[in-house]
């Protein structure tokens, strides 16, 4: 020990260096931290930090993989921000933490996102020359399908086994055709609308079945077996007219009705911003839609390209029994009551300037669906 000029005892420089050297030689490298400790750390990280954590070394990567499903499933819905310049970076905005993540992907220049399914973003070449390209921005897994015969929208994949065996179902961009492609097919199959002067509105996979919604409130069951068929499944009470559920979106129309599902409920929603939405629960036994005025502990996250019924958003500081609305014409994100009234206005994501310069709007991305493949029930 030495005594400093002020009379306070301390360790001299030589002894301090010797002690540090000794501690370094006796210590363990970061790569040898206990797996239990690494697991505790990785489960507390946000989405992007968790991805970076897994890239440090082999042991950290093994720990990240072990907790990957739990971490990603615990993430809130994120807003995909449009960009008119970046062609390799995807920006994701967390509305609850008010921060933006950036994930680098293979280039998606000259491609438009035309759907979101099971965590995959569906990209179509603007000139219709390249294959449909699907990529999961979290797992980086990719899928490809042949070029469809027309521009598509609202694409969804479904599989009897694994994503690599997936079929893809989509609507044409003008919503007058239903298209699908199966692994055994050599070309796309196209169905016109079941009735004249009617539009398709949405597609969903629920309990192993593919359901297709038309603008008059009819829900059709699409069977993708070798002998494909489209049959009427259910009709919602008090169906609305086409003119009340289609709105102009630049040079095309967008439906205002769509299907959402949780683990045990299928719903049809007729939604327009600042008006009272109509929500129908579909009874699978009676095959009718019944009006409901409550979502219970769930909330609807709605955008033109993506929507979902999310359970218990209060765990992220959100609200239950309400609607989180992303709309092209709105700069902020509105939280709306089921009466259509504004409950809360969330911070502008910074995408408003992009939306004024491009035809593309923001949309929701649901990390909890990254490992959820919509399996088909072929019985």
Polypeptide structure, described:
With 379 residues, this protein is mainly beta. The protein has helices at residues 13-26, 35-42, 47-53, 58-73, 242-245, 352-357, and strands at 2-3, 9-10, 78-81, 89-94, 99-104, 111-117, 120-125, 132-135, 142-145, 152-158, 167-172, 177-181, 189-192, 200-206, 209-214, 218-223, 229-236, 246-249, 252-255, 257-261, 266-270, 278-283, 288-292, 298-302, 307-311, 323-325, 333-336, 342-346, 363-365. The strands form 7 sheets. An 8-stranded mixed β-sheet has the order 14-15-16-17-23-22-21-20, with no helix packed on it.
- Please bin the fraction of helical residues: 10-25%
Structural Rg? 25 Å
Helices, by number, come to 6
Instruction: Return the structural class.
Output: mainly beta
- Kindly report how far apart the N and C termini lie: 82 Å
| Overall 3D shape | globular
What's the rounded overall pLDDT mean? 78
Question: How are the strands ordered across the major sheet?
Answer: 14-15-16-17-23-22-21-20
Beta-strand share of residues: 35-45%
Q: What are its keywords?
A:
379 residues, mainly beta, five-stranded mixed sheet, 6 helices, globular, eight-stranded mixed sheet
Topology:
Blueprint: E1 2-3, E2 9-10, H1 13-26, H2 35-42, H3 47-53, H4 58-73, E3 78-81, E4 89-94, E5 99-104, E6 111-117, E7 120-125, E8 132-135, E9 142-145, E10 152-158, E11 167-172, E12 177-181, E13 189-192, E14 200-206, E15 209-214, E16 218-223, E17 229-236, H5 242-245, E18 246-249, E19 252-255, E20 257-261, E21 266-270, E22 278-283, E23 288-292, E24 298-302, E25 307-311, E26 323-325, E27 333-336, E28 342-346, H6 352-357, E29 363-365
Parallel strand pairs: 17-23, 24-26
Antiparallel strand pairs: 1-2, 3-4, 3-29, 4-5, 6-7, 7-8, 8-9, 10-11, 11-12, 12-13, 14-15, 15-16, 16-17, 18-19, 20-21, 21-22, 22-23, 24-25, 26-27, 27-28
């Amino acid at each position: 020990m030495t005594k400093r000029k002020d009379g306070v005892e301390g360790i001299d420089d030589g002894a301090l260096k010797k002690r540090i050297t000794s501690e370094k030689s006796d210590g363990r490298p970061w790569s040898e931290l206990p797996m239990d400790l690494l697991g505790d750390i990785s489960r507390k990280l946000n989405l992007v930090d968790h991805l970076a954590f897994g890239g440090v070394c082999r042991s950290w990567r093994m720990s990240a993989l072990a907790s990957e499903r739990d971490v990603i499933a615990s993430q809130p819905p994120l807003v995909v921000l449009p960009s008119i310049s970046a062609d390799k970076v995807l920006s994701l905005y967390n509305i609850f933490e008010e921060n933006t993540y950036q994930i680098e992907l293979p280039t998606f220049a000259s491609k438009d996102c035309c759907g979101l399914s099971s965590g995959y973003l569906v990209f179509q070449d603007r000139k219709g020359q390249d294959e449909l390209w699907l990529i999961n921005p979290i797992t980086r897994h990719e899928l490809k399908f042949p070029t469809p015969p027309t521009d598509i929208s609202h694409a969804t994949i479904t599989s009897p086994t694994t994503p690599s065996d997936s079929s893809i179902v989509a609507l044409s961009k003008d919503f007058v055709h239903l298209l699908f492609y199966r692994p055994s097919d050599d070309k796309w199959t196209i169905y016109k609308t079941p009735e004249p002067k009617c539009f398709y509105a949405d597609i969903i996979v629920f309990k192993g079945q593919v359901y297709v919604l038309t603008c008059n409130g009819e829900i059709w069951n699409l069977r993708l077996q070798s002998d494909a068929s489209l049959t009427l499944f259910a009709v919602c009470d008090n169906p609305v007219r086409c003119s009340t559920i289609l709105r102009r979106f630049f040079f095309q129309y967008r439906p205002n009705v769509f299907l959402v599902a949780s683990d045990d409920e299928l719903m049809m929603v007729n939604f327009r911003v600042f008006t009272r939405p109509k929500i129908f629960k579909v009874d699978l036994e009676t095959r009718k839609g019944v009006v409901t005025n409550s979502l219970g502990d769930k909330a609807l996250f709605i955008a033109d390209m993506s929507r979902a019924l999310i359970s218990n958003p209060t765990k992220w500081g959100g609200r239950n029994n309400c609607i989180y609305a992303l709309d092209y014409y709105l700069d902020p994100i509105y939280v709306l009551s089921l009466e259509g009234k504004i409950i809360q206005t969330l911070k502008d994501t910074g995408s408003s300037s992009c939306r004024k310069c491009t035809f593309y709007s923001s949309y929701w991305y649901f990390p909890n669906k990254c490992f959820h493949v919509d399996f088909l029930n072929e019985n």
